[in-house]
Amino acid sequence: MKIFGRVRHRPSPTWRQATDQAFSLIDDGRYDDAGALLTRAADLEPWLSESWYNLALLHKFRHDWAQARIAGLRAVALLDRPVGAPDWWNLGIAATALQDWPLARRAWQAYGLRMPAGTGSRSGEESARLPLGSAAVRLSPEGEAEVVWGRRLDPARVEVLSIPLPSSGRRWGEVVLHDGVPHGERDTAGGGGSVYPVFDEIELWAPSPVPTWLVLLEADAPADRDALERLAAEAGYAAEDWSSSVRLLCRTCSESRMPTDDGSAARDPHDHGEPGHPGHLSHLSEHGSGHHWSPERECGIAAPVGLVRGLLDGWVADSPSTRAWRDLEEVC
Asked: Helix 305-318 and helix 222-234: axis angle, to 10°?
């Protein structure tokens, strides 16, 4: 096969050695050293799409989206196959990070996704959207990871619909850029329901102006707790009973297929992180079905400062004999 008048050939041993060494350095977090080797590999074999794909991948790891777009465009220009190559997916992530919507749309289509017809939006973003339903996303995957639920806006973005714990630094309603390969799954309804992928967050794409509050509730029954979550949702915001919706998983369980609503046992069977090696926090898709109910609940609320107290007071006013709140604190 000829590309730009040259016969395509297998990469040289020197190219392979430089590339292998570069990815070993990437595994160790030595991106600058890896970049020098991958640039050398691209100089050795500029006609190989793999040379530029590898550089684009490195720039994605570094969150250098302008360079990822440049290398990605060179990679797709040299592809042998027109549809389905991962080069297009990485280019779509870079284009989304840069809000280059025409390129993002082109990349998803070239990968093989059927895009909806454009809406004529001046920004072009709507024409690049591809709602893909619910998914889970792992915030801060390299740190104190937390798996939350969200809505996929397109192949590279998730809007967070859980209320993340304050340790994550993330808020309800934020949009995060995520990687393309799922890293685990969540199986609803105790293994007999739908299966949802868990994607790793790359970076925050759009912040949320809505603060996160921690409040201690006195709720005599689950129905009282449910009433607060319903009131918050009707106001356009959210409340989440962290006492029953968040559990700690070891890394192995977090990154495998996990039932999301396993809450009947006194001790979760997946709470087996080791001292000094904390596991991953994970939000359930629904409340667990535990038989024991403790009236005192730790609840997260996502709502503006001017609304949160009125929301809580209205919740109590509906059933003052079974509900109370105290110690409201803005935590993120």
From this structure: 140
At 287-303, the pLDDT tens digits run 654 458 999 999 999 99
| Residues 200 and 178 sit within 8 Å (Cβ to Cβ) | yes
SS3 151: strand
Helix axis angle for 13-27 and 49-61, nearest 10°, is: 10
Q: Give dist(CA 150, CA 158) in Å, integer.
A: 6
Q: Please, where are the H alpha helices in 10-61?
A: 13-27, 31-44, 49-61
- Which amino acid is located at 262 in the chain? D
pTM over 0.90: no
Cα gap 165→240, rounded to integer Å: 10
What lies within 8 Å, CB to CB, of 311 at 6+ separation is 228, 231, 232, 235, 237, 239, 301, 303
Q: In a 3-state reduction of DSSP, which class is residue 116?
A: coil
For 194-272, where are the E strands, in sequence order?
A: 195-206, 212-219, 238-241, 246-249, 257-259
Identify the three-state secondary structure at position 245.
helix
Joined tokens for residue 30: 């030595």
Task: Give the alpha-carbon dihedral of 281, 286, 288, 291, to 10 degrees.
Answer: 150
SS3 content of the chain, % helix, strand, coil (to 5): 35, 25, 40
> What are the distances in angstroms from CA 82 to CA 5, 77, 79?
19, 10, 7
What does the pLDDT average to over 121-134? 73
Where do the H-state alpha helices sit in 6-165? 13-27, 31-44, 49-61, 65-77, 86-97, 101-111, 125-128
